[in-house]
Structures are given as structure tokens and as C-alpha cells.
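Reviewer comment 2.1 asked that we show a complete input and output for one of the modelled complexes. We chose the beta-D-galactopyranose case, as it is the one discussed in the main text.
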Amino acid sequence: MQLGVCYYPEHWNPNRWAIDAQQMRSIGLEIVRIAEFSWQKIEPVEGNYQWDWLDTAIETLSAAGLKLILGTPTATPPPWLCQQYPEILPVDALGHTRHYGSRRHYCPNSPAYHQHSQRIVQALAERYGHDSRVIGWQIDNEFGDHDTARCYCQHCTHAYQAWLKTRYGTLETLNEAWGAVFWSQSYTDWAQIRLPNLTVVNPNPSAVLDYYRFASDSVVNYQKLQLDLLRQLAPSHFVTTNLLGSYHDLDYHKLAQGLDFVSWDSYPTGYTETHGHRLYPPGERPQFAFDVGDPYVIGFCHALTYGLLRRPFWIMEQQIGNVNWTDYNTGVRPGTPRLWSWHAAGHGADVVVFFRWRACLFAQEQYHSGVLNHAAEPALGWDEILSLQAEQAELKQFTAQPPTAKVALLLDYENLWAIQLQPHRKEFTYLRHLFVWYCALQALAIPVEIVAHRADFSQFQCVIAPTLHINDDGLAERLQAFAAQGGQVVVGIRSGFKTESNRVTDAPLPGVYRTLLGSKVQAWSSLPPQVQCALESASPAAAGLHIAEPAGQWVESLHSETSQVLLTYASGLYSGKAALTCQAHGSGNAYTFGWYPSVGQARTFLAWLAERHAMPRLVEALPYGVFATQRGAQTLLLNFLDTPQDVEVGGRRHSLAARDVKVV
Ligand code: GAL
Ligand code: ZN
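Response of the prediction step:
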């Protein structure tokens, strides 16, 4: 595993650069990422490029033996550009212009911004595209961060109208697809179509889903503009971009297309504080130490990132001490960044780049940690990097193999958005539902890949689709073929409900998934908190499957057509009706889950399934707080607790110290 660091030469006196570079090398760092926010330094006046400083920085870092990644600086258009072309500035959902003074202040559809982005990227790539000191490029920085995926400006309005014209051809088709007759909103002129902000009450969900698709496509196209240039001008360099884990305003499957690999920026304590609520229902977070982050949350982000291209990824920014953007921004105890780096490796990261080299003396991120503190003395990260270097041989051997999951969890952003627009039950989110299954698999030490609907399923034994909300014939057929070949398919609630344009299907539920599942959904209901329905076994085929905990949150009454009923509801509004069914196809099966499972219930079911179908578990009994991942034939054990843990793998006992790891 190679290690690197983010560096901002423009933040330091040039006479520090050589010292910094030499120190980076002295602790074994091999890679350095620079320049992603340096547009103004490169081009202080339109068309007047200042390369000297960057040439010197590259030369200095490279002379010390570091390989360079250059960021395209488009996340930070300089003031002169914004002043001269104010139309590049984005507009928020309240109709306010978002001004310069921080970062990400641009509209992805602004023609002027396209032109200037093209210019700066071209200038950079012409200068360094054939430079062997540079190994690759990061496009922009964290697309969508700070709520910037969706812009509500005039350019976007026109681009949205054009996008809709391409999608629907005629207004009749669009009106029909959206059900625009509702509340008298049928359009008679394309120019009448507004972006779906500032409406009195919620706008038409078909229009909003299309707007979300359009906004995501806009960023994908904007990235493509840069990607095409880099491919042409830097043909032997890799190109990536840095993503944000479980962030979901952009369709990451589309954004990842065409990149050599994806990266993400992992801030475990930061994410747990600020993003944890996206994955756990309010108040339901497991207790890990305050400074270790939540390994379920971070593991989920790793698995999701790996699955975007189904190949090893990079951590482009890895937390190395405290962050500065959460409520508490706590310090971090020794051993933890090392543990995080191994955790990333366990899920398929090949490179970890730490953020940042030295804590900054000025501006917005003064309170953020670095490998060096403000005074240029080694901070906590220094020793963390040294301990990773000391085990490089083991790390390299471990990361030489790909992760080998036999279970896939399906993720689709359009399905996610459709549920987000009409959750029907407070607290119901697509991602939380997915996360339940992820946690259950992790607790059972069953490796999992989180993949797109269109993924090739052939490597898997089991495919779990918590919600297939939008009907997709092709997917139904592929899942059935997968089952016929011996695969186990698990499909959950709210499936087959919507058409692609976010209307309800007129087919009986679960729509196109009915043949696959062999069951009809006769009725469904959201349940208020505390209301639960008991479950009981209905058939000898369910032998060994005991789900003692009652069903809550959401229940569907299933009617078996050709399937076998495994569990029924024993109380509540669907008492006596089927809750879990199994449809055989060839040598495989398709299971229908009729309720929103808890982690415990999903875990009981999966343990039963794994045993029946010989699905490998890395560890039979994983202690709480210990995680297991696999690359090739090697299993990695990670202890996120502050007490030592013993783990038995294949009949052998392994002792793990607090916050320690072991490859077995
Ligand atoms: C990231 C960002 C970096 C820096 C960092 C601070 O999201 O890409 O530029 O702001 O956060 O934690
Ligand atoms: Zn815009």
C-alpha cells in the first residue's frame, strides 16, 4: 500500500518546500497531491499564467523522490473570474446567489464557467500532461460538497428544459409522464417549466426526480469536459476524482464512469458526527469511543466506493488528527489513523493519502490538524505513518489481492431519490434500509460489495436488494437468471411500486418483480413507533429460522402465488398473512421480505441463509466491535474497541490488542 499526503506549497514560504519534501520522504511517504485550490496563483490575471512557483514546487517535491498528483483547481474560481463573469455563480434553492469567498461557488451549467474551466485545465495539462514527475490528476474537489450538486440559476433552468426535451420529445409525453394534470399543472410551452424550487407546497415528485437526474448529469458532464481534455493531453497519467462516501445528491455510478479509479475522502470522526444520522435512525448509533469514528459507517462508505467501479480505490484524504468542521472536532488517540488505514485497505483501498501535511496558519481551516502541527513539529500523524511503514511488507502483501465478496447489496441513486421524495414514513430512507443489511453482514463477517443494478452478478452467491422501488424489467430478468443459476436473491419492501417517471405502476405489486418473487403484495402499511407485529414460522422449509423480535416500521401483506410461505404475521393488521416467502428458480431462490428488518432480524435471516447455502463467513463468532474483511485468501481482523479481544478463526485463537489489527 502506498502512502501519500496533501500539500499546499502556496501556503508556505518556498524555502520550506525542500525541508517539507525531505521530511515526507523521511517517514516513507511516496505520493503528494497538490494544486487543487491554486487557480489564482496559477492565473492571477485572465490569460496570464504564472508557472514558476508550480514548476519549482513540482521540481522540489519530485527531487526528494515524491510522485505528484495534480488537482484541477476548478473548485475555487478566483475573485477576478467571478467579478468579470458573475453569471458563473450558483443560485441556491431559495433563489439566492452563492457568492465567492469560500469555495465551490460555480454553476456546473454555466457556459462561461465551462469555457474558463476548459482553459485552465488545458493550460495545466499542456504544461504537465507529459511530465513523468506527475502520475495522475484529481478532477476538481469533492463535487457536490457544501450542498452544491443542485443549482437553481437561469442557465440551469434552460439546460433543464433542453434536457427534458431530449428525454420526452413532446410536452404531451412529459405531461403524461409527470401526471401534470394533477393540480392543473400541464405545460403548453417548454419555457413554462421551472426548476422545482420555491413552490408553495411540495412540487410534483416526477418533476423533482427528473431535476435530480438532470442536476447529477450536469455535474457528470462538467467532469467529462475536464476528463476528455486530460485524456487527450495527459494520456499516460491516471485520472480520478475525490468522492464523499455515502453522499447521494450525485449519481456516483455515472460520475465514476471513465475514471481510472475512484477515491474518497475519509474522515472517520467527522463523518460519524455529521453523516452518521444519514445511516442510523435518530438516536440509534452504536457506542464506539468518541475518537475512533463508527466502523460501520466508514466501512459502508468504503464498500460503496469500491463497488462504484468494482475495483480498488484510493483514499485521497485520510483524517490524521482532529478535523475542524463538526460540533466537537475531538482529538484522536495514537493507533487510530493506523487502524483507519488498515480498515480502508481491508475494503479495497490501495493507496492512502493523508490530509494534510502541516496545519495551516491562516484562513478557514486553521484548526484542522496535519501530520505536522502549526509549528512544524511532528504531530500524532507522524508516528502513525511510521508505524504503517514498519508494516509495509505485510500491507503490500495484503493489498496485492482484490477483495472477494460473495454477497452483493444493490444500490441505485434514482431509487434512492424516489424514496427520498416520498418517504411516506418519517425516518424511512433508502440508505438506512441498505445500511441495515450492511451492518448485519458485517456482524456476521460476510464480506459484501455494494454494486449498481447493472452490475454483473456472476461472481456472487447472493444478491440483496432492500428496495427495488422503480420497476426495471431488465433487472427482474437478470435477477431471475441469477437465481436460476443457483443464486440467492433477497428483495425487500416497497419494490415494484414506481414507474421510471416516478408515478405509481398500475400493475399489481410488486410490479415487474412479481414472477421473480412468486408473491403479490396485497396491502402495505407504515407503522407508528412502538406498534409491532409478531412473526411466526409457517412451514418446515423455515426450520431453523427463528425471528423472535416482532416486525415494525413498515409491513406488507404478501400473498404467495407460486412461492412458499416461510414466515407469517402472528399479530397486528396482517395477522395470518405471509411476511416472508421463497420462490425457487432452478437451483436458486428469490426471497421476499415483507417488512423493514432490524439489524438483528436481518442478521438472523442471513445467518440461516448462509448456513443453508454454504455462504462463507470469515469468522464464526465475531465479538462486538471487531470487524473482519478479506482480500484474496487473507482475512483482516480489526478491533475498534479499547479493550483487547480474542477472535477464533478456523479453530485458531487470535488476540487483538485495543485498536489493533491482525492479518490471518
Ligand atoms: C475535505 C476537503 C479538503 C479539506 C478537508 C478538511 O472535505 O476536500 O479540502 O477541506 O475536508 O477536513
Ligand atoms: Zn446553475
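The pocket of beta-D-galactopyranose (ligand 1) is lined by residues 141-142, 265, 267, 317, 323, 325, 355, 365, 368 (CB under 6 Å). We note this here for comparison with the apo prediction described in Section 3.2.
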